[in-house]
# Entry
Amino acid sequence: MSTARDMMHPGADCVGAEQTLAEAARMMAERQVGSLPVCGADERLQGIITDRDIVTKCVALGHDPGDCTAGELATGDLAWVRGDADQAEVLELMTRRGVRRVPVIDDRRLVGMISEADLARHLDDAALTGFVHDIYGAPPNN
# Structure
């Protein structure tokens, strides 16, 4: 059975908690991703922000993404998995928490991210169908 390390996209870049949402959006565009982990000055993971977060929690409320920081949006109880977590653990966490991406942590360091695209590449049809049904059949978690 695959582990989180087998399934993850390695080398996730953090946006600094003190960086603006405008900077985070530029990073997302450059990397062609829809989310970024947020790390503090101590390089510890503080949360994840998405392009949708920037729109719904900043722009739509009339705030300037050049003034709001990534750390201001990186709140809440962060879900993450260890690199040696097996596929079942990863799916259970993502389903229970209703998240579509999860950071992978080894030795208290961010080593990668698992997204829906990563799951699609590594899961068999039955497991992927179950995940999609559970995630998209659940009420929104924002």
